[in-house]
Write a structure and sequence with these properties.
By secondary structure, this protein is α/β, with parallel strands linked by helices. It has 2 domains: about 1-65 and about 385-460 and about 505-530, Aspartate Aminotransferase, domain 1, CATH 3.90.1150.10; about 80-380, 3-Layer(aba) Sandwich (Aspartate Aminotransferase, domain 2). It contains 21 helices and 15 strands. It has helices at about 5-10, 25-30, 35-45, 50, 70-80, 90-110, 125-135, 155, 160-165, 185-190, 195-205, 270-275, 310, 325, 370-380, 385-405, 445-450, 465-470, 475-485, 490-495, 515-530, and strands spanning about 55, 120-125, 145-150, 170, 250-255, 280-285, 300-305, 320-325, 340-345, 350, 415, 430-435, 455, 460, 505-510. The strands form 5 sheets. The protein has a 4-stranded parallel β-sheet, sandwiched between helices. The protein has a 4-stranded antiparallel β-sheet with strand order 11-12-15-14, with helices on one face. Strands 2-8-7 form a 3-stranded antiparallel β-sheet, with helices on both faces. The longest helix has 21 residues, at about 385-405. The chain starts with a helix and ends in a 16-residue tail after the last helix. Bound molecules: pyridoxal-5'-phosphate.
């Protein structure tokens, strides 16, 4: 697919999509945009459905968009072959297995991850990858889970696994109004001593779990048979360590890029955490669609990814990219078809599969996983660095325009959360609109109005409650008060917390965005909200965060 990219994009140099020319000041502020004209041409050909449908799509942190070429590759592959369940040895099964294994290697190559060091495990999405780690990580009364405030709920949820096994969870709060976190705060959290036996016993009592829970029948030794060549899909024997890897003090989990503020946290924390004896889960879901992650340079232990965010298609395919050594520390709480090498009903005994299959429950999505290979080939044909450059130019322009929006009385029309520049951030911009009196415009009204105008943005808390709490300055005391109150519904909680809305608005740019999308969006905001007070009458109750 890569070789046909230039052909698909039309004549070199022609824009050809009838989009408006770059606005005054844009190219002088962001000259790097000039070098990304290939994406204008692809917008006109491969992503032509956007303009045909009159879409202004600004939700790339929600999902990427597919190129027509990817969909054609899918149809061509299915028309030209016979693909069966990969759990057999028959020809149709072997055809599926071959494509799945090829895709596994393509994933590792995409991240420049040495296959002898990293494994790519297919999951339904990033959430599935987080759950795999959470449920199998050897949490115990003497281990700790350290989380940054701005984790996605799919990472926050790991704390429930930790708590159920008596481990402490510590959150590291923001250190600045930009919603960043200092290196020192991370170091201090990692340096805290593991709780002693007394502390552990107290915590276990509070969590209602016996100290030995999680070490008994639920966690039987999971070792391959001695001398057995436990083999799945031609992976080298002993691809995963058979013996338990050394225990760590705990797990640090943080997003490489916040899906709320766009902040990109330092990847150097990975090394810091390793030096403190911690494993690292680097949530890369929002980062990798427009940033290079090179796993030959940085060495996180667990990397959850949702591929639809990168290439738009296929959906339903994610990965846990993990260091093989760290996988050796995980103890799965169950087994399933596909993830077990041998099992006995009468002996109540099983041996897990020894390679990636050990973490892939049931039948993987064999009709879709090979589409990821073409998706990655598409993205890499364009070049992740080119996409990054485009995204950063558009992000800068979006922030510039939002920050400059003013009501007739001179009051700002927008309050931006997170960094106000393009330094160490990605293409996700969270903000609220303000009325001429400085009050937040209800996010439901903006959702209603943008939808009617064919504009796709995200509204609400984006599954990132800690970032919202940081952005709105909520404290523990606020929560204590609210949780003592009589609230039952989302709107009642918001009232008790004294929040002006249930979160923010999020505009995010990506591979197929152009500057006209940004201009149209800003023109819409100005036209719809300048000098106006928007009532909340007729807005439906909030159904959830
Ligand atoms: C940073 C981050 N992590 C995790 C997720 C969860 O991804 P999924 O819903 O695809 O599992 C998302 C989704 O938006 C995200 O942005």
């Amino acid at each position: 697919m890569t070789r046909t990219l230039e052909k698909r994009s039309g004549l070199p140099g022609s824009n050809g999509n009838g989009r408006r020319p770059e606005p005054t000041g844009f190219l002088s502020a962001y000259p790097g945009y000039r070098g990304t004209a290939l994406l204008d041409r692809l917008r006109a050909t491969e992503y032509c459905y956007l303009d045909a449908g009159g879409h202004v799509y600004l939700d790339y942190t929600g999902a990427g968009l597919p190129a027509r070429a990817q969909l054609a590759a899918h149809a061509e592959r299915l028309r030209g072959g016979c693909f069966g369940n990969p759990h057999s040895e028959n020809p149709a099964s072997a055809a599926s297995t071959e494509l799945i294994e090829r895709t596994r290697l393509a994933v590792l190559a995409h991240f420049n991850a040495p296959p002898e060091e990293y494994a790519a495990i297919f999951t339904p999405n990033a959430t599935g990858a987080c759950r795999l780690v959470g449920e199998a990580y050897p949490f115990g009364p003497r281990t700790r889970l350290v989380l940054t405030y701005d984790n996605h709920n799919s990472v926050n949820g790991i704390r429930e696994f930790a708590a159920s096994r008596g481990a402490i969870t510590q959150y590291v709060p923001f250190s600045s109004p930009e919603l960043r976190i200092d290196d020192d705060a991370i170091r201090q959290a990692l340096a805290r001593p593991a709780p002693g036996p007394l502390g552990a016993a107290w915590r276990v009592a509070r969590s209602g779990m016996a100290p030995w829970a999680g070490r008994g029948s639920r966690a039987r030794p999971q070792r391959p048979l001695a001398g057995e060549g436990v083999r799945n899909a031609d992976r080298p024997l002993a691809a995963l360590p058979a013996a338990a890897a050394p225990r760590r003090r705990g797990l640090l989990a943080y997003p490489a890029q916040s899906n709320f503020s766009g902040v990109q946290h330092p990847l150097r924390w990975i090394q810091t955490a390793h030096e403190h004896g911690y494993d690292v889960l680097l949530d890369a879901a929002a980062y990798v669609p427009s940033n290079r992650l090179d796993l030959s340079v940085v060495k996180p232990d667990f990397v959850p990814v949702s591929w639809y965010k990168v290439s738009g298609y296929p959906t339903g395919v994610g990965c846990l990219v993990a260091r093989r050594e760290a996988l050796g520390r995980l103890r799965r709480p169950w087994f399933a078809g596909g993830s077990v090498y041998i099992a006995s009903v009468q002996a109540g005994w099983h041996v897990p599969a020894a390679d990636e299959a050990r973490f892939e429950d049931g039948t993987v999505s064999f009709g879709q996983i090979p589409d990821l290979e073409s998706g990655l080939s598409w993205v890499n044909g364009i070049g992740i660095d080119l996409i990054h450059r485009r995204v950063m130019c558009l992000t800068g322009w979006l922030i510039d325009l939002l920050a400059a929006l003013r009501h007739g009385n001179g009051q700002p029309m927008a309050r931006i959360y997170g960094p106000a520049s393009t330094r160490d951030r990605g293409g996700t911009v969270a903000f609220n609109l303000l009325d001429p009196g400085g009050c937040v415009v209800d996010e439901r009204a903006v959702a209603r109005d943008t939808a009617a105008a064919g504009i796709s943005i995200r509204t609400g808390c984006f599954c990132n409650p800690g970032a919202v709490e940081g952005a709105f300055g909520l404290t523990k005391a606020d929560w204590r008060r609210a949780l003592r109150g009589p609230a039952r519904t989302m709107d009642q909680y918001i009232g008790l917390l004294g929040l002006p809305s249930a979160g923010a608005l999020r505009a995010s740019v990506g591979l197929a965005s152009d500057v006209d999308d940004v201009e149209r969006f800003l023109a819409f905001l100005e036209m719809t909200y300048r000098d106006r007070v928007i009532g909340t009458g007729g807005l439906a109750p909030r159904r959830g965060c």
